[in-house]
User: Which sequence fits this backbone?
């Protein structure tokens, strides 16, 4: 049996046996409200949801939106570094990475010059954020401490005209970086930081 709880425009279906969220439908529909990505802050248990308008912060109890943060250029992904209390939101058309302090909600940005940011992963031990750029086929490294781009490289050729960096993940133990590539080649590149 599912229970539904409504608050602040969200309808939530919960399984009372295990408690997981089964469905969430925003009553305010529209292209700028469509969720693109989400992440959970392991310390506060807040759910951060990226939409084309920015990010919404949802408190776990009573499951209400406590803040809305604007972001430039169509956010596509987000990641949270709980050790530094920062959320990183990609700005695909804004050619930047938005940084949000998860406690104060103060916003800053790191310019990526002419390249977009598509997906983001954090390696907290190395204090590094890794970004993919979609059709620009690059991977960018940002030093979290200095908030500066420290390296950017094109991915390896997978097939002619098929260079696309999409998803990215970091193994926190080995520090290897996994990047999805290609519209038709469907490959994964594994990188080891120097």
Assistant:
């Amino acid at each position: 049996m599912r229970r539904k709880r409504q608050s602040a425009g969200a309808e939530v279906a919960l399984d009372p046996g295990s408690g997981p969220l089964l469905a969430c439908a925003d009553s305010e529909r529209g292209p700028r409200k469509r969720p693109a990505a989400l992440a959970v802050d392991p310390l506060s248990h807040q759910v951060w949801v990226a939409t084309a308008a920015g990010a919404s912060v949802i408190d776990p109890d009573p499951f209400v939106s406590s803040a809305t943060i604007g972001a430039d250029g169509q956010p596509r992904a987000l990641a949270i570094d709980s050790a530094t209390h920062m959320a990183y939101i990609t700005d695909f058309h804004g050619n930047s990475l938005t940084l949000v302090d998860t406690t104060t909600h103060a916003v800053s940005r790191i310019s990526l010059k002419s390249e977009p940011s598509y997906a983001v992963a954090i390696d907290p031990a190395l204090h590094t954020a890794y970004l993919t750029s979609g059709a620009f086929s690059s991977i960018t490294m940002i030093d979290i401490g200095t908030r500066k781009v420290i390296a950017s490289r094109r991915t390896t050729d997978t097939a002619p005209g098929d260079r696309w960096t999409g998803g990215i993940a970091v193994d926190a133990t080995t520090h290897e970086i996994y990047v999805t590539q290609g519209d038709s080649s469907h490959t994964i590149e594994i990188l080891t930081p120097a």
